[in-house]
Amino acid sequence: MIIRLKPDVTPEVIKTLAEKYRAIWVDGKQNLLVLPSKIKSADAALQQVAEKVIVTDSDIQLASREFMPGRREIQLGDLRFGGDSRNTLMIAGPCSVESEEQIEQAAQLCVSLGIRVLRAGCFKPRTSPYTFQGLGIEGLRLLAQMREKYGLRIITEVRDSTHVREVIEYTDIIQIGAKAMYDHGILRQCGKADKPVLLKRGFGTTLQEFVQAAEFILSGGNSQVILCERGIRTFETKTRFTLDLCGVEWLRQYTNLPVALDPSHAMGYRYGVPGLARACVAMGVDALLIETHPNPDAALSDAEQQLSFEEFQSLLPALKRVAESVGYRLV
Amino acid sequence: MIIRLKPDVTPEVIKTLAEKYRAIWVDGKQNLLVLPSKIKSADAALQQVAEKVIVTDSDIQLASREFMPGRREIQLGDLRFGGDSRNTLMIAGPCSVESEEQIEQAAQLCVSLGIRVLRAGCFKPRTSPYTFQGLGIEGLRLLAQMREKYGLRIITEVRDSTHVREVIEYTDIIQIGAKAMYDHGILRQCGKADKPVLLKRGFGTTLQEFVQAAEFILSGGNSQVILCERGIRTFETKTRFTLDLCGVEWLRQYTNLPVALDPSHAMGYRYGVPGLARACVAMGVDALLIETHPNPDAALSDAEQQLSFEEFQSLLPALKRVAESVGYRLV
Amino acid sequence: MIIRLKPDVTPEVIKTLAEKYRAIWVDGKQNLLVLPSKIKSADAALQQVAEKVIVTDSDIQLASREFMPGRREIQLGDLRFGGDSRNTLMIAGPCSVESEEQIEQAAQLCVSLGIRVLRAGCFKPRTSPYTFQGLGIEGLRLLAQMREKYGLRIITEVRDSTHVREVIEYTDIIQIGAKAMYDHGILRQCGKADKPVLLKRGFGTTLQEFVQAAEFILSGGNSQVILCERGIRTFETKTRFTLDLCGVEWLRQYTNLPVALDPSHAMGYRYGVPGLARACVAMGVDALLIETHPNPDAALSDAEQQLSFEEFQSLLPALKRVAESVGYRLV
Amino acid sequence: MIIRLKPDVTPEVIKTLAEKYRAIWVDGKQNLLVLPSKIKSADAALQQVAEKVIVTDSDIQLASREFMPGRREIQLGDLRFGGDSRNTLMIAGPCSVESEEQIEQAAQLCVSLGIRVLRAGCFKPRTSPYTFQGLGIEGLRLLAQMREKYGLRIITEVRDSTHVREVIEYTDIIQIGAKAMYDHGILRQCGKADKPVLLKRGFGTTLQEFVQAAEFILSGGNSQVILCERGIRTFETKTRFTLDLCGVEWLRQYTNLPVALDPSHAMGYRYGVPGLARACVAMGVDALLIETHPNPDAALSDAEQQLSFEEFQSLLPALKRVAESVGYRLV
Fold it and tell me: Which pairs count as long-range contacts for B190-195, CB under 8 Å and 24+ apart, including other chains?
């Protein structure tokens, strides 16, 4: 249950109520008190402080349609997506920052194609310790250079709580990876950040749990969360994961959060990325991440799924046409 | 391994070889001898009868790209799809034939929208014995009436081997349902039929097994098989199944069979069908099945996923625009 | 809802009610009327014919604990298992009947170890048409010979409806395989048979659907159904399937049907079969199927998972000790 | 590939080689150089420093049977398990530390039953922010009190990198939970700890990835890792998870790490825990975790799956008998 608090209720009163009901106070402009969803009605004490009471089905609360009927809009400088914008944000770049030369080539590709957001990982959540683990802080610095030099926005991933502050400092959109999405240390820090957060669904994560992870960020005070579907793990292993577009429809029906899609990780093989990317755009998705690398076969991570620049360049016009056919625009 | 036989080899010789290698002879115009795929080279006896030898990776043989590099085309009267046609065949209708009035309304809807193929089930593979099991033969007769009266093509499902002959006799495209796709009794009968077969993927079936089921039909002599993805079962239960579009990309990369998609069964809820249908069309799929019913809430089966006629009518133009944007045409 | 009918209600009255409520009449000694489970109370017409009314949660009805609080016992000549017998029936033999010599060796092994039920398949539901498909009727005849010669009971599998009558005629326990468990043609025939049916869970089948499949047999009049868990398909592919022992606990808590386990198919590799078999027995299971072959490496199907006779012989005493430790006896 | 280094090779030489091959140096007594597994042979430079060269199939290296043929033994004071000990370590206690009274009752239960290791969580990785999150440091202090007062060993969970140091300091066995098992921040800290680590398998984690996560700890220098299977997520939702005992057999066949089992989390409902616990013990497992709470219905987390003290007490003798029947002893 969400209580929209009257503006004149004092912090002391709110804190007392929060403690009593094990509730979370979202302070500042929002000024909400979020109680466990199993509490289904406001007693007198709550009624007294409430401007409005919103009862929710489950612990999908701030992300629910009951709380906010439309879809949240994300503003990133002059870029807008989500909400009623009918914009699909294109995000492109290699899996990992590997060198200055490589990331600069990717940045130049983005600029030449009118893409405004560059993605690349610095802290790689690899499953084996015996593979490339990312450039770390050095990678963050290279991304910041690209931002300054080319006017691009940056999105990069936080892997665990030990470097969440650095990532928040350097990036424009904070990406929480599929393996880190239950990490309370990260989620709570992102709740205090004032930058958009792209939260990837864990490959073994239900839709309910996925949105509940977003609630950690939302209830921390950060209202800019983008949900990213990137494939779930199923019995089928001919492809790396299974892109759950049925789940995307559920997220759009039952939550107020914008949705991004990552067909590259889902497929795991570049031959399938163009077809899937067209499918994603035809759904009218809020953002799309495509991995592209100047020389995919030599990539230090995810070599098989990254498009070459040529492949990416020839895909883009097709995506634009599909976007237009459903009344959207790639930005 | 597939041997394309020289035209002058006698049936006796072929039968002897077939027995020796546990191989299957696909006679008639095709005149092929298909050996287990673990046999990787042709010995002298095989070389002598071979016009051509095709070695395949796995028991995906007649369906493989090694055997036939393009995609098979299906001809259904004047309707063409698959191959290089860039046509997407629209198939619409209710889950089940429930009455003459209901199926006639669906037939009239198809006619009014230019849809040429009417679908509806007569033998329903329900999971409970205490629910509507379909009209059986009576349903087949009603479908045949619709064909005659409205010039529509019919697709309907065979549930088990006890009525496979009747379905083959009455229908234009034989549908093998997700729960029946391992049924050798059905597969072998369809192998001898001269009608296209739409084979649905079992919800627990790997892509490899799915195509191997098609091999039963292909090796029986029927070269017109359409693979239909209709959602697989995963840990996610907010939606009925998970539409595996990554798998579709794999099927198109590694097999020569046309691919159909059924977003209605995958989603299980009508709110998600339009978005998924657009996604399917944007991939450039060969056929699309959408469930629509004159009064979905009163439907005797799958009530939640069938579109009303109004919903279907408003979806169709959007699908046409998406198809055009990728260079396809809805037929 | 299940109505236990008063003995004096006439067939005409019952048939009229059955039609009115889309209910199934289980006639004979049981004399039950089974209505769809969504009907939650008996109206006057039903009350009039009812000796007892049992309301069930879902379409698990005749298999439910509401209908029958304990576990059903199966009687097979002088062999008893299920119920309160605290017997675990051992079933052993090769995957397929391959030759008279091979099946005779297996029969002799059973006799020498005091095992009373011999298993082997004749109609193999292979996923590829290019592999060994079983000996068919000839295999059934060989199994019948073993029964006569060695006094063994026989269990063998029906693959599809085309040969269900032959299997029912020849076997002592009818096995319905994992891929055939939704086959209405088979389920309905087995409902009319007066032999125990071992129903295997499909590898993509939920527990709810699994028990509902048993309802087809039970509502057909055959009250002797054994549920067999044999592994479900999950994302893990290092083993062939995943034996769902959590599901076994659910089946024992919520149904009245005896439960058999097949660790051989679940594991897929012989190294894991002994450990899993011990685990199954420790649960106090009603029956256990183990695949064993005189020469596993030369087996025509499932070569990797069958134990050699030596391995099986050395496993058996361990299973007996585990059974005793939980108050059960291997029979 | 693992190089067992000659004792006289200098750190400088080793570091140079490590950099050249992106290898990890496990220093100290072990003195190993672990190279990416795709390197399959040692060149001259490597040969020169190698006492022994071990080639491994995949990035399961230090955990592999190629590296160490038997199973590692864990020594915890006078407690021994794993290796050839044929001991099964019993670990019991509530899901969470909730209060001094509650944890003291659990400690007393352990003492009275001869159980030596007490488990309880302080940092709970809850999926919703609106539920009990654990007592944190205060909980660690209460656990430490129990150790002092009752001579028990403690196992408790680290949730994210922000408190890994505190957990390592307070606990005897460090538990890494299912949702934290990819967390490099935690894994690397545990690699430097000199306490045993119980690593739980993520519910969406393959066996390969699971063991690779252990490699992070092993290659950090900590050789005491216990793998804990606690249920994977499958399509079946009648039970909370699916305990993967087939996977356990694989782990025991292909790795050298001891294996623990947690049937409570897998099942999610207390009615199934006793049967599953017997199954686990019958496999001859190295450790077993059972959740038990003085008043399960009032538990602040996982209320449905915790056994009451009475249920736990009556289960224990059964487990002892099963252990004996397979030649093991509960410790």
Answer: B190/B164, B190/B217, B190/B220, B190/B222, B191/B216, B191/B217, B191/B218, B191/B219, B191/B220, B191/B221, B191/B222, B192/B220, B192/B221, B192/B222, B193/B168, B193/B222, B194/B222, B195/B168, B195/B171, B195/B222, B195/B224
Of D204, D233, D235, the CB nearest to B233: D235
The range of the structural domain enclosing residue A251 comes to: 73-330
Residue A132 forms contact with D (CB below 8 Å): yes
Please give the interface size between B and D, counted as residue pairs whose CB atoms are below 8 Å apart.
10
Do A25 and A140 share a domain, yes or no?
no
What pLDDT, in 10s, does the model give residues B97-117? 999 999 999 999 999 999 999
> Using an 8 Å Cβ cutoff, are D218 and D197 in contact?
no
Enter the tokens of residue B93: 């209708």
Residues in chain D: 331
Query: Which structure tokens are listed for A248?
Result: 């995307």
Beta strands A32-34 and A2-5, pairing class: antiparallel
pTM value is: 0.96
- Asked if A49 and A99 sit in the same domain, the reply is no
Same domain for D78 and D50: no
Alpha carbon of D271 to those of A71, D307, D308: distances in Å?
Answer: 43, 9, 11
Domain identity same for B109 and B48: no
Contact, A251 vs A239, CB < 8 A? no
Say if C231 falls within a structural domain: yes
Burial code of C51-82, b = ≥16 C-beta within 10 A, e = fewer?
Answer: eeebebeebbbbbbeebeeebbebebeeeebb
User: pLDDT above 70 covers what percent of chain A?
Assistant: 100
Q: Does C184 touch chain B (CB under 8 A)?
A: yes
Give me the number of domains chain A comprises.
2
Strand order in the sheet with B50-54: B24-26, B32-34, B2-5, B50-54
Q: How far apart are CA C207 and CA C222, in angstroms?
A: 20
Q: Is residue D271 part of a domain?
A: yes
B79 and B163 housed in the same domain:
yes
The token duo for C291 is 């695949």
pLDDT, residue B289, reads: 98
C64 in a domain, yes or no? no
Instruction: Specify the CATH number for the domain of residue D217.
Output: 3.20.20.70
Q: Are D282 and D325 in contact (CB under 8 A)?
A: yes
- Report the pLDDT value the prediction gives residue C64, as an integer from 0 to 100: 98
pLDDT band at B28 (very low <50, low <70, confident <90, very high): confident
- Are D124 and D200 members of one domain? yes
Q: What is the DSSP string of A293-326?
A: -SSGGG-SS-TTTPBPHHHHHHHHHHHHHHHHHT
DSSP string, C33-95: EE--TT--S--HHHHHHEEEEE--SSS--TTBTTT-SS--EEEETTEEEETT--EEEEEEE-S
Kindly report the nearest CA distance between residue A128 and chain C, in angstroms.
18
> Residue A117, SS3?
strand
Q: Is the domain of C23 the same as that of C123?
A: no
C66 in a structural domain: no
Say what the ipTM of the complex is: 0.96
d(CA B248, CA B261): 9
What are B48's two structure tokens? Answer: 């002598």
A317 touches chain D (CB under 8 A): no
- Give which of C225, C223, C229, C215 is closest to C58, Cα–Cα: C215
Query: Token digits for D2?
Result: 């693992």
Return the residue in B232, B235, B244 with the most chain D beta carbons within 10 A, the one to mutate for interface testing: B235
A188 and A228 share one domain: yes
